[in-house]
Design a protein that fits this description.
With 126 residues, this protein is mainly alpha-helical. 62% of the residues lie in helices and 10% in strands.
């Protein structure tokens, strides 16, 4: 099972389609911001990174025009990070890639897909 998951990981496709280079932090940051603006500290927590690394990611995404960074309205010492229009486009592209089933699953006969779904539902709810 782990071999299947590793061999169908969309990370390489995401990096290539979005032009974000190696590492998954940039994609995680973009997807985390899909729900709305976050402070740098909140974004760091959302992506499981320390604040200095989150700042590096934000700097890179800002340079690419995918997000904006503004002073927080409640606390001017904090920065709020938000997707730009280009960032929202990138998130939509990422979500489409993430949501697409791997080709081995798409190639299964419908009856097998029904059975697989039943098995996965059993695993999820037990």
């Amino acid at each position: 099972m782990s071999g299947f998951v590793r061999s169908n990981d969309p990370a390489d496709e995401l990096r290539h389609a979005l032009g974000l280079g190696r590492g998954s932090g940039r994609v995680k940051a973009l997807v985390s911001l899909a729900g709305g603006p976050l402070s740098l500290a909140e974004l760091a927590q959302a992506i499981g990174a320390d604040p200095p690394y989150a700042t590096i990611i934000v700097n890179e995404l800002h340079a690419l025009g995918l997000l904006s960074r503004t002073p927080d309205a409640r606390d001017r010492r904090r920065k709020t990070v938000e997707l730009t229009a280009s960032g929202r486009d990138a998130v939509r592209k990422a979500q489409d890639i993430i949501a697409r089933p791997p080709s081995p699953l798409r190639d299964l006969p419908p009856a097998d897909l029904v059975r697989l779904r039943q098995i996965l539902e059993q695993l999820t709810w037990t």
